Amino acid sequence: MHEHRKVLVGRVASNKMDKTVVVVVERSRRHPLYGKVIKVSQRFMAHDENNSCQVGDMVRILESKPLSRHKRWVVTDVLDRTTAD
């Protein structure tokens, strides 16, 4: 297998679209000049075929071919589900 697709883990921020979720991926990086560790967040639109993700779920997303204008990621599995009370 020679595929090198990126895999990211993030939290679902929105599931208001049909078969699409917005996933927020947070990374820690060091400031180039001051050296302080800062959190940088990035938002990705990901394909959710069964509309199974809820807001707050931790999901793993996999890079894929362009599915629409903004979607280039697919939800592979839900790592941690939020409990709705």
Protein described:
It contains no helices and five strands. By secondary structure, the protein is an all-beta fold. The protein has one domain: OB fold (Dihydrolipoamide Acetyltransferase, E2P) (Beta Barrel), CATH 2.40.50.140. The chain has a five-stranded mixed beta barrel with strand order 1-2-3-5-4.
Which terms summarize this structure?
85 residues, mainly beta, OB fold (Dihydrolipoamide Acetyltransferase, E2P), 0% helix
Question: What is the topological layout?
Answer:
Layout: E1 7-17, E2 20-30, E3 37-47, E4 58-63, E5 73-80
Parallel strand pairs: 3-5
Antiparallel strand pairs: 1-2, 1-4, 2-3, 4-5
Quick description:
It is built from no helices and five strands.
Strand-and-helix sequence, N→C?
A: EEEEE
CATH class: Mainly Beta
Low-confidence stretches: none
β-strand amount: over 45%
Q: What shape does the CA trace take?
A: globular
Put simply, the count of helices is: 0
Helix content: under 10%
